[in-house]
Amino acid sequence: MLTLAALSLRLRASSCQGSWRSIATVVSGNKTSKLVRERLKKEVDNMRTQFSGFRPSLVVLQVGDRDDSNLYISTKLKAAAEIGIDAKHVRLPSSATQDEVLQSIMSVNDNLSVHGLIVQLPLDSVNAIDNELVTNAVSPEKDVDGLSCINAGKLSRGDLNDCFIPCTPNGCMELIRQTGVSVAGKHAVVIGRSKIVGAPMHDLLLWSHATVTTCHSKTPDLPQQVGRADILVVGAGRAEMVRGEWLKEGTVVIDCGINHVPDETKASGKRVVGDVHYASANQTAAYITPVPGGVGPMTVAMLMENTVRSAQRFLLKNQQHR
Amino acid sequence: MLTLAALSLRLRASSCQGSWRSIATVVSGNKTSKLVRERLKKEVDNMRTQFSGFRPSLVVLQVGDRDDSNLYISTKLKAAAEIGIDAKHVRLPSSATQDEVLQSIMSVNDNLSVHGLIVQLPLDSVNAIDNELVTNAVSPEKDVDGLSCINAGKLSRGDLNDCFIPCTPNGCMELIRQTGVSVAGKHAVVIGRSKIVGAPMHDLLLWSHATVTTCHSKTPDLPQQVGRADILVVGAGRAEMVRGEWLKEGTVVIDCGINHVPDETKASGKRVVGDVHYASANQTAAYITPVPGGVGPMTVAMLMENTVRSAQRFLLKNQQHR
Questions:
Q1: Does the keyword Iron apply (chains A, B) (predicted)?
Q2: In chain B, how many domains are there?
Q3: In chain A, what residues touch B152 (CB-CB under 8 Å)?
Q4: Does residue A172 sit in the same domain as residue A289?
Q5: Measured between alpha carbons, how far is A46 from A52 in angstroms, rounded to an integer?
């Protein structure tokens, strides 16, 4: 699977780390997401020059006041501001009813100057709100999270140019591209089948012409299945579940896990680890994403990418209608 | 994988066929579809009694006059009539434009007395018609072929109770159920990723908790992938491509292929074969579907099933609104 150039890159990376045992090349989401954001900033600058002050616009709708949601949203708003995307945070109180949330969504759907709308999940409301209903109320043309049924349907049936791709798997694909390993004809294994990671990841790998195996909590022989992977994407939500001993030599390992485990050596008393046991996987994989600094930052970058694409489609449509 | 009862069934089946080498139990679509149709007939009779003459209603929209379409449609109309479904054949001339086709669809969408609408593909029109647009114009609540993006999205993300499942893969699942082999925890391999067979088949097996591998024309090691299957579903469209030597002992083989190959011994000069080389697969598989008489008749039965389900949902909705 390795080209000579990639092999030389790996040997250099390995020798830089001062250990011959650690052979995997680290695929940095921090670096790659920075490249993506820089590219998008240029595109947005060009749009602004070409279309007299035009800016892509994103609305982040939040219900309630969860600490974790606040943190995620502030990261998104900051990334948008840096790129030149006009991002607006709409916050409804936790007393908001389902109808009020739907009304808010409809008003953004109808606003022609907004190109992207995401609803920050989980909804933090004292009222019962149907997540599916809310997710599918977002206009498919503005659904830059790619979570509506229509976008999921298009992706799952291979209409990739006509849909929004969920941000985390889209970021994983970008990281795989960074390795230079081609996906077509490879055996990819995905662990997990969630709506935001596993299921769309399967679709993306499949339509990039990999043979894809999806594993999950009911898979009885996970180590054997993982052992056949040329490309492994893990979105299981279980700390350090995948062991290095399971891997085939030379695998590409993409770890979507974000798990907090106790660590007395840290001031916070905990640290973040992925779904892959990094220290052992690092010995066998050819490429591996770290946690943190791997898939995480890519998710935000791809949300920005989708927003810029949506704005471009909007401009194109407007030009065609002139 | 085999229970004692299933093993005894296989041995009996094998001895009935008068050969010890032929070990697979034949999973008959003719028999199973008959059972489904009989069950549906009873359900429709009950509906009629309970709701003063109510009948499920299906519209089959055809554009043009292709011989193969005519044959398929007449099979569907006949099955519907036998069950008590009120099926109507709407035929537009091959001179029909896209707008005329869309108008026809909208008028059926708006007709409250129709519960199912299918557009017979391929469209036989002298005008350019966008298949995707037409397929997605069918109201998701009447899309008993399960081919619209919304239904595909729900199926692919595991919302199986809230969608229509495409008829061929739904029929395959019914045949697998007939074997008594449980799907959960098994390794299923699907060959093909088409919108009407492979892709939704993957979804159904996955959400029945199998570990699923999807193979296709870009899979380099098809025999090895097939050799790992506990359950194999083939929708490749290539005559007798899968050989018995590839199979693991005891596999369930479901063959969706319908291929015409030259045969001088037949009056028509040809015969129908599947995507699986039956004579050799029969030696290794535990269960196998024949071609013809396997998946084929199930497709029509499942269309009837979806139409009856749609009518039931319609009745339920009407009761709730009272």
A1: no
A2: 2
A3: 152-154, 156-157
A4: yes
A5: 10
A142 is known as an active-site residue: no
* Set A31, A34, A41, A76: catalytic member: A76
Q: What is the CATH number of the domain that holds B255?
A: 3.40.50.720
Assess whether A181 and A288 both reside in one domain. yes
Across the interface, do A185 and B209 touch by the CB < 8 Å criterion? no
* Token pair in block for residue A131: 């997540």
* Shared domain check, B220 and B277: yes
Per-residue pLDDT 10s for chain B (322 aa) are 445 545 544 544 444 444 445 689 999 999 999 999 999 999 999 999 999 999 999 999 999 999 999 999 999 999 999 999 999 999 999 999 999 999 999 999 999 999 999 999 999 999 999 999 999 999 999 999 999 999 999 999 999 998 999 999 999 999 999 999 999 999 999 999 999 999 999 999 999 999 999 999 999 999 999 999 999 999 999 999 999 999 999 999 999 999 999 999 999 999 999 999 999 999 999 999 999 999 999 999 999 999 999 999 999 998 876 6
Q: For residues A199 and A242, state if they share a domain.
A: yes
Give a yes or no: residue B309 inside a domain.
Answer: no
Torsion angle of the four alpha carbons A96, A97, A103, A108, in this order, in degrees rounded to the nearest 10 = 40
Task: Tell whether A291 and A171 lie within a shared domain.
Answer: yes
What is the spatial distance between Cα A10 and Cα A107, in angstroms, rounded to a whole number? 51
Is residue A106 situated within a structural domain?
Answer: yes
Q: Is B130 on the interface with A (CB under 8 A)?
A: no
Domain region containing A269: 166-296
For residues A314 and A308, what is the distance between their CA atoms, to the nearest angstrom? Answer: 10
Do residues B28 and B35 touch, judged by C-beta distance below 8 A? Answer: no
Q: How far is CA A114 from CA A13, A87, A123, A209, B294, in A?
A: 44, 9, 22, 34, 52
